[in-house]
Design brief:
It is built from six helices and seven strands. The relative contact order is 0.21. The longest helix is centred in the first third of the chain and has 17 residues, at 9-25. 35% of the residues lie in helices and 20% in strands.
Length: 196
């Protein structure tokens, strides 16, 4: 995978200090730590309702001293921002080619020589959606890695890493259990998050 700000020594240290400071003075609490056995894993990022989710997510990642990659729509990676967004850990997603994306993500996780945590927003957009996209599930299932349920609750100002979920292959039952975990959380624009 490509080099990111998490691999950039001085920048990494400065951004971690800034993130810890900013989250503290704004009243956010960060919970959890890297679960054992999740060096290679898929992370759910929910709720996703605002452009502010990315900077807050990156600050939480720094606060937890992690190194991640995240998926974002191709439009975020247009010139002149492409290099910068990829340096932030971004991987462009072509929504019309989702099946290729799942296969490519599985291969990237399996072939990564070291840790590889891939953050995927299940809604696939900031707009309100009734049904979550299932790409994150099939990536984890195909790569035979666990799903880490990461969360951000703007109402309570808490963010962090929740339980680890091992996909069973029964997508209906598994999605119901995953959504039940996320149901209490509020996104920045609460009316746009639906996890029932």
């Amino acid at each position: 995978m490509h080099r990111t700000l998490f691999d950039t020594p001085i920048v990494n240290t400065l951004l971690r200090a800034f993130s810890l400071f900013f989250l503290k003075i704004t009243g956010w609490k960060v919970q959890g730590s890297m679960p054992p056995g999740c060096r290679k894993s898929v992370w759910i990022a929910a709720p996703h309702t605002s452009n502010w989710d990315l900077p807050y997510t990156l600050m939480v990642v720094f606060a937890l001293n992690l190194r991640v990659y995240w998926m974002g729509k191709e439009q975020l990676f247009r010139w002149p921002f492409r290099g910068f967004m990829m340096w932030l850990g971004g991987i462009p997603v072509h929504r019309e080619k989702s099946s290729n994306l799942v296969a490519a993500s599985i291969a990237a996780i399996q072939q990564a020589p070291g840790p590889m945590q891939l953050i995927v927003p299940p809604e696939g957009t900031r707009a309100k959606v009734r049904y979550w996209k299932t790409g994150f599930y099939y990536i984890a299932l195909g790569a035979q890695v666990p799903i880490v349920m990461a969360y951000m609750d703007y109402e309570k100002k808490i963010a962090g890493l929740g339980p680890v979920f091992q996909p069973s292959g029964d997508i209906d039952a598994d999605m119901a259990a995953i959504k039940a975990f996320y149901a209490p959380f509020k996104g920045r624009i609460a009316a746009q998050f639906h996890a029932e």
